[in-house]
Amino acid sequence: MKKQVVEKNKSIIEVNNITFSYENSNSKALDKVSLNITEGSYSCIVGHNGSGKSTLAKIIMGLLKPNSGKIKIKGLVMSPETIVEIRKNLGVVFQNPDNQFIGATVRDDIAFGLENRQVNPDMMDGIINRVSKVVGMNHLLDKEPQNLSGGQKQRVAVAGVLALESNIIIFDETTSMLDPRGKQEVKEIMVQLSKLPNKTIISITHDMEEVLSCDEVIVMRDSKFIGKYKPEVLFSQDHLIKENHLDLPFVYKLSKLINAKIPGIKPEFREAILVDEICQKHKLK
User: Fold this and answer.
1) Beta-carbon neighbour count of residue 137 at 10 Å?
2) Which of 135, 152, 154, 214 is the most buried (most CB within 10 A)?
3) CA-CA-CA-CA torsion for 202, 204, 210, 213, nearest 10 degrees?
4) What pLDDT was estimated at residue 103?
5) C-alpha distances in angstroms, 17 versus 31, 66, 123, 225?
6) What torsion, rounded to 10 degrees, do the Cα atoms 130, 136, 138, 144 define?
7) Rounded distance, CA 132 to CA 19, Å?
């Protein structure tokens, strides 16, 4: 499906001078943070533990109220009067897949949000079938949650968000508790969703392999916004990686090690390109 073209650089989320401290804390969890998130983008928020990335996500979700500053989503300033309308645009997939199920089956769980929105019951089956196909769970609609893998549970959570037609989908360290297969499944879903029309994807993550697939990387450190970068720009600047205590993607680290043995192999993020360069150097192609 071709992604709908949105106005270039149009912001869907605007964070303006946000400051926040947790109760009984002498330090700021967020300190005068200002940033924009582009409509239709796939953004990753990264940073070392305690950097403020999870707090920022909770404020965007409306789960925390900032001490000062404003946040605007789709043109609406977040307030007690607008929060219900704003949340119609937000869907969240949380960290622990076992804490997200409400229904007795996959079908029931996807239907729960629709029932809360008072969607016509005659329309529900069509919606459930459509969104379950998007995440590859249509063959498991009658399965009980306890019989699903972690990755499958997260895909069901994504289906529930899609059923409500949320424009903004936030993944809150969604892959951190999954095995490698589950992580890969969910990361592929995020990339797939980022190509759908009218979808803005935000992922709070420690997974640098995932970051390679996003459009914009938002870097947090010591409760402050450091900058927003393209993945290849961020990873190619050693000082940014060191100062912000970030890791490098495996393929990039491997390419740098290979460069020490095979001069001329450039640092590379994409596995296929790295393999091709190595083959060409050894005249294997």
Assistant:
1) 22
2) 154
3) 30
4) 82
5) 8, 10, 43, 10
6) -130
7) 39
Query: pLDDT band at 10, cuts 50/70/90?
Result: confident
Comparing 64-78, 111-125, 253-267, the range with the smallest average pLDDT is 253-267
DSSP-derived 3-state class of residue 69: strand
**Alpha-helix runs per DSSP H in the chain:** 53-61, 83-87, 106-116, 121-134, 150-163, 180-194, 208-211, 231-235, 238-243, 250-261, 271-281
Residues 177, 97: contact at Cβ < 8 Å? yes
Q: Token pair 């989503």 is at which residue?
A: 73
Phi, psi of 190 (to 5 degrees): -60, -45
* Cβ–Cβ < 8 Å for 46, 246: yes
Burial class of residue 246 (count of CB atoms within 10 Å of its CB; 0-12, 13-18, 19+): buried
How many other C-beta atoms lie within 10 A of the C-beta of residue 251?
Answer: 19
Residue 3's pLDDT band (cuts 50, 70, 90)? very low
Q: Are 46 and 217 in contact (CB under 8 A)?
A: yes
Cβ-proximal residues to 273 (8 Å cutoff; 6+ apart), any chain: none
Domain locations in the chain as residue ranges:
9-89+202-245, 249-285
Give just the sign of the alpha carbon dihedral 16, 55, 42, 139.
negative
| 75 conformational bin, left if phi > 0, alpha if psi -120 to 50, beta if neither | left
CB under 8 Å, gap of 24 or more: what pairs does 185-191 form?
185/151, 185/152, 185/154, 185/155, 186/151, 186/154, 186/155, 186/158, 187/213, 189/135, 189/136, 189/154, 189/155, 189/158, 190/42, 191/42
**Distance between CA atoms of 233 and 237, rounded to whole angstroms?**
7
Segment holding 170, helix H or strand E: strand 168-172
**What would be the CATH architecture of the domain defined by 9-89+202-245?**
3-Layer(aba) Sandwich (3.40)
Give me the amino acid identity at 36. N
